[in-house]
């Protein structure tokens, strides 16, 4: 796949997205979120603010959660990118996705992909998360619909599920 901005200089990059390598040509100012959404068709990564304030565009870059609206596509050259589409599927949800579903940790769903990607990163750092640690860990991801309580419960449950210690059963 190749792309270029008409009249602009383009740069060749190679980026592995959800396990699939892509060799692309991008304008130097192309944001990673634009590359994912507009050029690769991965629309689960949402654009909410374009200022890296809301976290709707959170993905994993080489294993760490980052806001893809604050990363240039050329910065992802030779990197691994994981988006919500690569985390799980409808038939095989990732434990964090399942926890969000079980705990009713979403309403409109706009922030959910970024919130889940941030939560997975947080859970990979520690499976034993208290509410304060979770709230601090997701403070860069905004939700305008919920009061966050179900999100906090889902992150705790998802972290324990990821660790295989599903001790935090949440009954809906």
Architecture overview:
Strand 1 and strand 2 form a beta hairpin. The protein has helices spanning 32-39, 84-87, 95-102, 112-125, 131-137, 149-162; strands at residues 11-17, 20-26, 58-61, 64-67, 79-82. It starts with 10 loop residues before the first strand and ends in a 10-residue tail after the last helix. By secondary structure, the chain is an alpha+beta fold. The protein is built from six helices and five strands. It folds into two domains: 11-87, Beta-grasp domain (Ubiquitin-like (UB roll)), CATH 3.10.20; 95-162, [2Fe-2S]-binding domain (DNA polymerase, domain 1), CATH 1.10.150.120. The model is unreliable at 1-7 and 167-172 (pLDDT under 50). The protein is globular, with a radius of gyration of 17 Å.
Short description:
The protein has 172 residues and is an alpha+beta fold. The chain contains six helices and five strands, in the order ββαβββααααα. Helix 4 crosses helix 6 (149-162).
């Amino acid at each position: 796949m190749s792309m270029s901005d008409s009249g602009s200089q383009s740069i060749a990059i190679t980026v592995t997205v959800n396990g699939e390598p892509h060799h692309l040509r991008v304008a130097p100012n192309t944001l990673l979120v634009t590359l994912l959404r507009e050029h690769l068709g991965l629309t689960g990564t949402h654009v909410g603010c374009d200022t890296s304030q809301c976290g709707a565009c959170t993905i994993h870059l080489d294993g760490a959660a980052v806001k893809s609206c604050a990363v240039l596509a050329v910065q992802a050259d030779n990197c691994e990118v994981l988006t919500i589409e690569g985390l799980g599927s409808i038939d095989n949800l990732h434990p964090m996705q399942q926890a969000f579903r079980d705990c009713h940790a979403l309403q409109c769903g706009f922030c959910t992909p970024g919130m889940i990607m941030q939560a997975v990163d947080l859970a990979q750092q520690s499976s034993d998360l208290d509410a304060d640690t979770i709230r601090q860990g997701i403070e860069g991801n905004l939700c305008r619909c919920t009061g966050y309580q179900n999100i906090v419960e889902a992150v705790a449950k998802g972290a324990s599920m990821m660790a295989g210690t599903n001790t935090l059963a949440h009954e809906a």
